[in-house]
Specification:
With 296 residues, the chain is mostly beta strands. The chain is built from 4 helices and 22 strands. It has 2 domains: 164 residues, no CATH class; 100 residues, Sandwich (Immunoglobulin-like). The chain is 8% helix and 39% strand. 23% of the residues are buried.
């Protein structure tokens, strides 16, 4: 009789791929810790990613220029007798470098030390995540997430913004990892941009609203904020509330042909209220709620 120490193991056989297609990171997607794709098919569907972005659950960070390993070494004790004793595996970590205008770096800094999970996107368009049950897919859990100060520029080193991460559990990849190479480009999936909406007063139930992106960091030569009009919005991108507090479905939304980013919103019986730009899967913009005053 003998003790059986090993269960049945699988072999490393011949498969179609000769090596892993996973390569260096080009971007990543931060998510709220409770976010998940319910199925593998959902994980591969662009519309489901966009829904998560619109719902303020997924936050893409694109354009990684470089990454550095920040893995913690495995803990191994060398005993006085010359034996090695394995204690535990070190956690996996990375430091990413991206180039951002100052205004977007300020947005990135608001993510500092928040409780995120993370999906990685590589330069072969693979998106990596983990499956805790073989059905749903989540990002990797993090026990460390930092956005340090922006690097000062030097001749051989531009003004990088840094993102430092450390994964909580290496087995989320080494045991339960999953990746997809979707038909769509992960690098084109961006986050919701904060814009400004400036409404006019109501005149005969209608009003106009000018929508623009305002850069409060990069000023013009005259010292003014840099602005860019947001064009191409449709009725679904405006949430209108009338004087009674009811949500109004506009009878029409028309963009000016002479002033891009200025929209006329037609209603049936609105005299005052509020308007907000809200994101959709085709127009990832959002503003604060702005008051629409009655005409005087």
């Amino acid at each position: 009789m003998a003790i059986v120490c090993l269960n049945t193991l699988s072999g490393i056989g011949e498969v179609c791929e000769q090596a892993t297609p996973i390569t260096i990171t080009s971007g990543f997607f931060l998510t709220r810790p409770d976010f998940e794709f319910s199925t593998f098919a959902s994980f591969a569907t662009e519309a489901d990613w966009l829904t998560g972005i619109v719902d303020n659950k997924i936050f893409p960070v694109q354009g990684v220029k470089d990454e550095e390993p920040m893995d913690f070494e495995d803990s191994v004790t060398d005993t006085p007798s010359g034996d090695k004793v394995f204690n535990f595996e070190g956690r996996r970590g990375k430091r990413f470098k991206i180039l951002l205008p100052l205004e977007m770096h300020k947005v990135l800094r608001t993510y500092d030390r928040k409780n995120f999970k993370i999906f990685y996107l590589d330069r072969n368009n693979n998106i990596r995540g983990t499956t805790p049950d073989g059905t749903k897919v989540t990002g990797f859990s993090l026990n460390y997430f930092r956005i340090p100060k922006q690097q000062s520029p030097y001749p051989d080193n531009p003004a990088y913004s840094y993102i430092e991460v450390q994964e909580l559990d290496i087995n989320e990849w080494d045991r339960n990892g999953v990746y997809v190479n979707p038909t769509w480009l992960g690098s084109t999936v961006k986050g919701v941009l904060t814009v400004e909406a400036t409404p006019s007063t109501v005149a005969t139930n209608d009003f106009t609203v000018a929508v623009s992106y305002v850069d409060n960091s990069g000023l013009t030569s005259a010292g003014a904020n840099t602005t860019a009009a947001i064009s191409g919005l449709v009725a679904a991108n405006f949430e209108v509330i009338d004087q009674t507090g009811a949500v109004v479905t506009p009878e029409g939304v028309t963009e000016s042909t002479t002033t891009p980013g200025t929209y006329t919103i037609e209603t049936a019986a609105m005299t005052s209220g509020s308007v907000q730009v809200i994101p959709s899967s085709t127009a990832l913009f959002k503003s604060e709620v702005e008051t629409v005053s009655a005409a005087t």
